[in-house]
């Protein structure tokens, strides 16, 4: 009990004032947890505030179009989260009359809700005695108890969940879960934690054995794929341009982009100009082609590094289905394209 008591005492003195902590509303907690997957709190908070302002209830979110949701999500990345969010809102609004499931096992059935998110909603909204296990929890427990289990293994989550459950005060699971995650986020950080100021510096096994920087153990490095994107920013005589929707599975599904030439390696003007004339416009339709950025913009995703060039292509006449700049800005784009549009 010493661990739990010290942890909760630390939390009550040091916790951040975050908007989703002042409620037990499962809609708000679900929104925040989906947004904070793969996202820092500082980045996710403005999105949470925007979403709750635009869609105060799950019915409002369900009634929105997917494009509205993706536009508001723009820049937060991992867009499958937004699409699943929208589908789940439909399900909760239409099939469950707007009432979120009240147990961990039922929450797990929602699209986009995994073990961690279900545990967070179940404990924060309904005070169910179920531990959350995220990167922060792995780090805190592995260091405090000197657990050398490789957290990349599928079995690790069960082991750490069992340990967290054992430590959790059964009459106050929500505060314990918040506390251990906050402790990992603010105090027991991945690199160079200030162990001298830690409330556990007389009982942490990793500190006593000088192993803080070795834990948690994590193997399996992600193999990164390099891809080379050449976007064609077409302009006709009315300065209208053309965009397309990414409908194939993979990155940026259902977001918009300029016409794309993907190449095997970084290519220069001659290769791109040849491809434009071969696949898009004939030689007599093109007025000029110009690189908007000489060096590729490297946009890093978890498993892919995208090397992106934008090419301004002026064409004669008026293009079919062309849109003006104001209309262009209303569509949801990947953030790297959005930033390019905003600068133009």
Commentary on this structure:
With 344 residues, the protein is of the alpha+beta class. The protein has 2 domains: 2-214, Endonuclease III, domain 1; 225-343, Nucleoside Triphosphate Pyrophosphohydrolase. Helices cover 43% and strands 12% of the residues. The chain is built from 15 helices and 7 strands. The protein has helices spanning 2-14, 26-35, 41-54, 58-63, 66-73, 80-95, 104-107, 115-126, 135-145, 156-167, 173-186, 205-208, 269-279, 325-328, 335-343; strands at residues 225-235, 244-245, 256-257, 260-263, 286-291, 297-300, 304-315. The strands form 2 sheets. Strands 1, 4, 5, 6 and 7 form a 5-stranded mixed β-sheet that branches. Strands 2-3 form a two-stranded antiparallel sheet. A hairpin with a 3-residue loop joins strand 6 (297-300) and strand 7 (304-315). The protein is elongated and about 80 Å long. The N and C termini lie far apart (59 Å).
CATH superfamily of the largest domain: Hypothetical protein, domain 2
Number of strands: 7
Q: Roughly how many Å apart are the termini?
A: 59 Å
Overall body shape: elongated
CATH topology of the largest domain: Endonuclease III, domain 1
Low-confidence parts, pLDDT < 50 over ≥5 residues? none
The DSSP helix count reads 15
Overall number of domains: 2
Topology pattern, helix = H, strand = E = HHHHHHHHHHHHEEEEHEEEHH
Q: What CATH architecture of the largest domain would you give?
A: Orthogonal Bundle
Helix content: 40-55%
- Mean pLDDT reading: 96
Structural class: alpha+beta
The level 1 CATH classification of the largest domain is: Mainly Alpha
What Rg, in angstroms, do the CA atoms define? 24 Å
């Amino acid at each position: 009990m010493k661990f739990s008591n010290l942890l909760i005492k630390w939390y009550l003195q040091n916790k951040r004032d975050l908007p989703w902590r002042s409620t037990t509303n499962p809609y708000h907690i679900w929104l925040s947890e989906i947004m904070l997957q793969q996202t820092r709190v500082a980045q996710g908070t403005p999105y949470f505030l925007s979403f709750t302002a635009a869609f105060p209830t799950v019915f409002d979110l369900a009634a929105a179009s997917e494009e509205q949701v993706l536009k508001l999500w723009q820049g937060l990345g991992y867009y499958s989260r937004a699409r699943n969010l929208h589908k789940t809102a439909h399900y909760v609004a239409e099939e469950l009359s707007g009432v979120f499931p009240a147990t961990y096992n039922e929450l797990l059935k929602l699209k986009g809700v995994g073990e961690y998110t279900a545990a967070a909603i179940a404990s924060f909204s309904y005070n169910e005695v179920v531990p959350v296990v995220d990167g922060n929890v792995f780090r805190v427990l592995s260091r405090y108890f000197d657990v050398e289990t490789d957290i990349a293994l599928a079995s690790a989550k069960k082991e750490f969940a069992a340990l967290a459950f054992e430590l959790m005060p059964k009459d106050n699971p929500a505060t314990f879960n918040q506390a251990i995650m906050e402790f990992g986020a603010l105090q027991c950080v991945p690199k160079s934690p200030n162990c001298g100021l830690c409330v556990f510096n007389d009982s942490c096994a990793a500190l006593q054995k000088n192993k803080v920087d070795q834990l948690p153990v994590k193997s399996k490095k992600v193999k990164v794929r390099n891809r080379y994107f050449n976007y064609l920013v077409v302009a006709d005589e009315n300065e209208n341009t053309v965009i397309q929707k990414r409908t194939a599975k993979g990155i940026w599904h259902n977001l918009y982009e300029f016409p794309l030439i993907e190449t095997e390696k970084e290519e220069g003007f001659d290769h791109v100009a040849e491809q434009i004339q071969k696949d898009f416009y004939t030689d007599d339709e093109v007025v000029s082609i110009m690189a908007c950025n000489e060096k590729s913009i490297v946009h890093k995703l978890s498993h892919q590094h995208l090397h992106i060039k934008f090419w301004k292509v002026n064409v004669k006449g008026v293009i079919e289905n062309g849109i003006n700049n104001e209309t262009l800005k209303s569509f949801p784009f990947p953030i790297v394209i959005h930033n390019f549009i905003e600068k133009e």
